[in-house]
Amino acid sequence: MASCTRGWCTYGTRTERSQRTSRTAGLRTVTERIPAKVALPVAGLFGAVSGAVVYQFLLPDWFPALATAATYAGAAYFYLAFDIPLLETHVEFTDRADRLGYAVGLFGVSVGPLALGEYVGLSNSGLTGVVVWQLGLLAFLLLSATAAHQQS
C-alpha cells in the first residue's frame, strides 16, 4: 500500500517522488496500474466498439473490422495496464539529424495510407477505414514498446 505526502510516495521500504503521468491523470503516479482483471475486459470492449463503428460506418466487411478491433483492443490494454500517457512525448531525439530523420519518417507514415488509397482507388469511407486502422496500429506499437520499456 502506498502512502503519499507532499509529492513523495512510500511503497513498502522504498520512497519515490510522485509524478503526474499526464494532465488528466491527477493524483495517479507512474507506478500505479489498473489490474489486468479490469484492463483486459475494458480493452476488449473498446476494441469491439471500435470494430463495430468501422464495420457500420466505414468498411462493411468483417475482416478489416476485426483487424481494427484487435488493434485497438491491444492498444487500449497497454494504455490501461501500464498507465502510459497518450499526449506526451514517447520518443525524443537530441541530435538534429536524428530529429530530421524522425520527422521524415513520420511524414511518410502519415501520408502512406492516403497514397495507398489513391493508388488502389479506395472510396472515401474505405480510405478513412485504412487511416483509422493505421492510427490504431501506430498507437499499439508505441504503447506496447513503452510498456516493455517500463517493465525492464
Short description:
The chain is mainly α. The protein is built from four helices and three strands; from the N terminus they run βββαααα. The chain folds into two domains: 1-32, no CATH class; 33-151, no CATH class.
Layout of helices and strands:
Layout: E1 2-5, E2 8-11, E3 14-17, H1 36-58, H2 62-82, H3 96-120, H4 124-151
Antiparallel strand pairs: 1-2, 2-3
From the structure above, extract its key features.
about 150 residues, mainly alpha, 2 domains, three-stranded antiparallel β-sheet, 3 strands
Helix/strand-derived category reads: mainly alpha
Total helices: the number is 4
User: Total number of β-strand segments?
Assistant: 3
SSE series: EEEHHHH
Low-confidence stretches: 21-31
Shape: flat
Question: What number is the mean pLDDT?
Answer: 80
The main β sheet shows up as: 3 strands, antiparallel
Oligomer: single chain
Give the helix level as a range of percent.
55-70%
Strand-residue fraction? 5-15%
Number of domains: 2
- Give the strand order, joined by hyphens, for the main sheet: 1-2-3
Radius of gyration: 19 Å
Would you write up a description of this structure?
This protein is mainly α. The chain folds into two domains: 1-32, no CATH class; 33-151, no CATH class. The protein is 64% helix and 8% strand. It has helices spanning 36-58, 62-82, 96-120, 124-151, and strands at residues 2-5, 8-11, 14-17. It has a three-stranded antiparallel sheet with strand order 1-2-3, with no helix packed on it. A hairpin with a 2-residue loop joins strand 2 and strand 3 (14-17). The relative contact order is 0.13. Mean pLDDT is 80; it is low at 21-31.
